Write the structure tokens for this entry.
Amino acid sequence: MEKRELVIIGAGPAGMTAAIYGRRAGLDVLLLERGAAGGQINTTEEIENWPGVQRATGPELGNMFREHALKFKTEFRTAEVKKVELREDSKIVVTNKGEIEAEAVIVATGAYFRRLGCPGEAERVGQGVSYCAVCDGAFFEDEVVAVVGGGNTAVEEGDYLTKFASKVYIIHRRDEFRADRAAVERALSNPKIEPVWNSVVEKIEGDGTVENLVLRNVKTNEVSNLPVAGVFMFVGQSPYDECVRGLVKAAKDGWIIVNEGMETSVEGIFAAGDVLNKHLRQVVTAASDGAVAAMSASAYINEQIHLRSSILEPESVTAFFYQSIDAAQARLSNEVEKAAKAKGIKIPIIDAYKNNRMTEKLGLSSQLPALVQLHRGGVEKVTRVDSESDIAKVFI
């Protein structure tokens, strides 16, 4: 089986930033992507909020990320990740092109726009129903179209569609948009854009292709028709979490939960970008997540290498295991280190909190803090250490 240090799933801004930071940290990095590098930004016509670049198209910015990652010799591979599995102490990335064993995994799979779910939507996808203005906008030259949604994406993509369409309705269930003020002002000042407030799409009609939207006013319940040639859905997002669904802790709807180091609930698996349970999903926050995840993964990988070389591979060794989140145990670890140094003895100090799986595997979780004698990676003797006097007895 192929073995790699860091496997990153997803080549969007989060994944490619993680690759850049991972390679700069000296890691062997494999970046897996099922489509084109860039992820969701490839469907965005204009990006104005990437610091230092006043304006760029999504594909342009995505290519900048890719070229930067390639500069550091990141290996890109086109593959579809089916799932990530834990097999004993190994993390296995299962793809349509084989299995890869990884020291650490970063899940940067992103998110996708949800479907509205109304009658007539599913059967007209590609026949007037779209989820990508950049991809399909040019097909509606001089036509009347509608956008459904009220956030940044809906308002910005509605403005973009006026390059092609003769008129763009933006249908929103509230009486004001939730988008940034600048985006709203630009859209509302565009003579081709007309908002349809307090309304939802009940049904999409047409003989094969989209011809009419049946709308319902949420305040009056009045039903009306809106003749259009196309409708673009931007009604929220869902995470691409399938490869780790049920494996890592997640919030409602599958958004992955991480700590400030981008660590998931599973040791050695990290996550970054739009797949996370967080407030703001933007290119800049995805890149930030990717950088943090890569540095956390680097620290984890180095720690695993240290663990193997210090306690698992030697013929015999004595190590001190403690919980760093317990202040008393942390103080004892310092005293053990001092006592060992005074005796000219080298004792590995192992933080059981950071290395929970290793601690559980050795059966030490309920016996800490302790000096542990190991032989060929197996526990031979555990000596509980609860105080400085216990340390003194050990080092007599």
Notes: The chain has nine helices and 21 strands. Residues 23 and 73 are 8 Å apart (CA to CA).
